[in-house]
Amino acid sequence: MVPITVSLMTGPARINFHHPHLLGIEGLSASEIETLLDLGDHYVELNRRDEPAEPLLANRTQINLFFENSTRTRMSFELAGKQLGARVINMVAEASSIKKGETLLDTAMTLNALHPDVLVLRHRDSGASALLAQKMDCAVVNAGDGSHEHPTQALLDALTIRRRRGDLDGQVIAICGDILHSRVARSNIHLLVTMGVRVRLIAPPTLLPPFIERMGVEVFHDMHAGLKGCDVVMMLRLQTERMSGSFVPSAREYFHYYGLDYAKLAAAKEDALVMHPGPMNRGVEIDTDLADDINRSVIREQVEIGVAIRMACLDVLCRERGKARKQNTEDAA
Questions:
Q1: Of the candidates 160, 148, 158, the residue with the CA atom closest to the CA atom of residue 186
Q2: Which of 192, 153, 191, 156 is CA-nearest to residue 44?
Q3: 279: preceding bond cis by omega (within 30 degrees)
Q4: Could you tell me the pLDDT band of residue 243, with boundaries at 50, 70 and 90?
Q5: How far is CA 293 from the centre of its chain?
Q6: Are 309 and 143 in contact (CB under 8 A)?
Q7: In which band, very low, low, confident or very high, does the pLDDT at 239 lie, cut at 50, 70 and 90?
Q8: Where are the beta strands (DSSP E) in 96-249?
Q9: Collapsing DSSP states into helix, strand and coil, what is residue 59?
Q10: CA 168, CA 317: separation in Å to the nearest integer?
Q11: Under a CB-based contact definition with an 8 Å cutoff, are residues 125 and 105 in contact?
C-alpha cells in the first residue's frame, strides 16, 4: 500500500499507518510507531508556536465515550479534536442510558446511527474497544480498556523520551510499581521492546503478572538493583480500584520499598528522567519534591505532549477513513 503524503509542508513527508482503528500498541510495527511519533512531534512544535493546525477534521464528528473517570486523557482528546477542527461530543456514561440498563452494544448501535467519524472509548473491561470496533462504522480509538492497553499513553511517553534523548533505541528504561493491573505498563512494554529499548520491571512479586519475562523484559524486586544505570524511570499508580484483596502491606511500607525518592533515584544515571502517567499518589509511589523537580521530572511535559500525540492519532485514522470512503465511492462508480 502506498503511503499517504501529508499536505502540511512542515510535517512528516509520508504517513506509514494503515489501520482503521487504534486498539493497542501490540501488533504495530516500528515504522508505524515512528510515523505516529514523527507526526506527534510535528504537532508539538505547532502547538508550542501557537500556530493553527490544518483543520483536517473539519465537518467530522468525534465522540468521546468514557466509562471511567479521567482528566488528562479525556481533556487532551477533546482539545486534540478541536485543534483539528472536529465537532467534539463528550459523552459521560453516568449521564447516559447505560444507567437505565442499556448494554454497551445497544449504546454502540445508537451512536452508529449518528454517523460519527471517530469514537474515543475508555472502558473498565478489557477488549471493549475491540468489540465496538467490530460493530461501529467509524474509527475507534482505545483510551484505556481495563488492564489491557492504553496505546496513546505509551505513544506520548515514547515521544517525551525521544524529544529529551534524541532516540529510543538503546535506552534503559525501568517501569516501576503496579505492573499487574496497569494497561499503561502493557502498552509501554510493547512499544519500548519493539523500538529496541532495554526494559526493566521493578515491583513486588504480588504486583507482577505471571511469565511477564516472555514479553522481553528483565524483572527486579529491588529498586536499587533495578534502577542501576537506567536512563528513564517510569512510576505507576497503585490501581487500587482493580484490586481485590491485599497486594501490599500498607501504603507507608510500599513507599519505603518501592516509592521513588532521591535516595533510590541515585542508583540510576545522573541525568535520568522521571515519569508518571498520572494521577499521582504523592508519598505512595513518588516523593512530592521529586515529582515537582523540573530538572528530573518530565511529568508536566507528558501532559502537554499528550495533546499532540492524540492529534496525530486522530489525524492518521481520519485520513485512512477518508481514503477508504474515496475508494468505496470509486468502486461503486
A1: 148
A2: 156
A3: yes
A4: low
A5: 23
A6: no
A7: confident
A8: 118-123, 139-145, 172-176, 198-202, 218-220, 232-235
A9: coil
A10: 24
A11: no
Q: What are the tens digits of pLDDT across the range 50-109?
A: 988 999 999 999 999 999 988 999 999 999 999 999 999 998 776 566 666 678 889 889
Instruction: State the number of CA atoms in the 13 A half-sphere of 142 facing the CB.
Output: 31
pLDDT above 90: percentage of residues in the chain: 77
Top pLDDT among 299 and 329 is at 299
State which H helix or E strand residue 43 sits in.
helix 30-48
CA-based torsion, 239, 243, 247, 251: positive or negative: positive
pLDDT the model gives residue 252: 87
The total of other beta-carbon atoms located within 10 Å of residue 116's CB is 22
Q: Using CB atoms within 10 A of its CB, is residue 282 exposed (0-12), middle (13-18) or buried (19+)?
A: middle
CA nearest to 234, candidates 208, 272, 197: 272
Residue 114 has pLDDT above 80, yes or no: yes
Is residue 173 within 8 A of residue 197, CB to CB? The reply is yes
Backbone CA torsion sign across 2, 308, 142, 92: negative
Length of the chain, in residues: 333
Residue by residue, DSSP assigns 153-195 as HHHHHHHHHHHHHS--TT-EEEEES--TT-HHHHHHHHHHHHT
Q: What is the pTM of this model?
A: 0.92
In this structure, the number of other CB atoms found within 10 A of the CB of residue 273 comes to 23
Whether 2 has a pLDDT exceeding 50, the answer reads no
Phi-psi region of 120 (alpha: psi -120 to 50; beta: other; left: phi over 0): beta
pLDDT at position 327 is 55
Is residue 177 within 8 A of residue 236, CB to CB? The reply is: yes
Dihedral-angle region of residue 151 (phi above 0 means left; psi in -120 to 50 means alpha; beta otherwise): alpha
